[in-house]
Design goal:
The chain is α+β, with helices and mostly antiparallel strands. It folds into 3 domains: 45 residues; 88 residues, Immunoglobulins (Immunoglobulin-like), CATH 2.60.40.10; 77 residues, Immunoglobulin-like (Sandwich). Helix content is 20%, strand content 45%. The protein contains 1 helix and 17 strands. The strands form 4 sheets. Strands 2, 4, 5, 7, 8 and 9 form a 6-stranded mixed β-sheet that branches. The chain is flat and about 130 Å long. Keywords: Membrane, Transmembrane, Transmembrane helix. Pfam families: Glucodextran_B (PF09136). InterPro entries: Ig-like_fold (IPR013783). This is Bacterial Ig-like domain-containing protein.
């Protein structure tokens, strides 16, 4: 081995030794300060975003008692309605209509279906209060709105006139009704606009034709009108 090779080998050994020393210093720093720094940083970050505390839900006596209304009309044309539902661990039901107690029953099963009344014209508030026999536990249902109306809806046919004659095989039937009312012309549904106006086309047969218009409101009240139109060809 020449002198030059020995010098290069010595430099290489010194370089390797230096790298080993640096590696040991880095590892020492990591294990001595790095982990501690990492833990402190994690604690700081978690402090910025605190986790909500989880508390066990306390079981209360009320959580084992329930009352639900499963059937009640939104609108009706009768002053009396049927209210149905189910209960759990209650003995007595009080029925309230417009903030007034109108009926009380003792329960013999976990379901109920009762008729209550008398409703007032327009909107009515209905709710039920369930009670234990010792009156220690009470629970109210939500308040339901029930609309009561027993008047027939308005139904006006403005065109064509009754007992009129036309030479057009297809004519326009126009009219007006109340808002929130469904219209059928000869059993076919017709669109009613926001003002209660409606219009549809009807195809006539030769001779006399009956056009039947039916109006039904959300409470179930019905009004019907029939007009006669005669179709004669030119």
């Amino acid at each position: 081995m020449g002198r030059l090779e020995r010098v290069q080998e010595k430099k290489m050994k010194n370089t390797i030794a230096l790298y080993v020393v640096i590696l040991f210093i880095v590892l020492y720093f990591i294990f001595t300060f790095g982990i501690k720094l990492l833990l402190n940083t994690s604690s700081f970050i978690s402090g910025l975003f605190p986790q909500p505390s989880i508390k066990p839900i306390a079981k209360t006596e009320d959580s084992f008692n329930s009352i639900d209304i499963s059937s009640i009309p939104q609108a009706t044309n009768s002053a009396k309605i049927i209210v149905s539902g189910s209960i759990l661990n209650f003995d007595i039901l009080d029925f309230y209509l417009n903030a007034k107690k109108v009926k009380e029953i003792e329960l013999s099963s976990d379901t109920f279906s009762e008729e209550i009344g008398d409703l007032e014209k327009g909107d009515n508030d209905v709710y039920i209060k369930a009670k234990s026999r010792d009156n220690k536990i009470e629970k109210n249902t939500i308040t339901y709105k029930v609309f009561y109306k027993n008047d027939r809806p308005k139904l006006e046919i403005s065109d064509p006139s009754d007992n009129s004659t036309t030479n057009n095989q297809e004519i326009k039937v126009k009219g007006n009704t109340d808002k929130e009312t469904y219209i059928h012309i000869n059993d076919l549904p017709v669109v009613v606009d926001a003002n209660g106006s409606f219009e549809t086309s009807v195809r006539l047969k030769d001779g006399d034709n009956q056009i039947v218009a039916t109006a039904q409101d959300i409470a179930g009240n019905i009004e019907t009108k029939t007009i006669k139109v005669t179709y004669q060809k030119d």
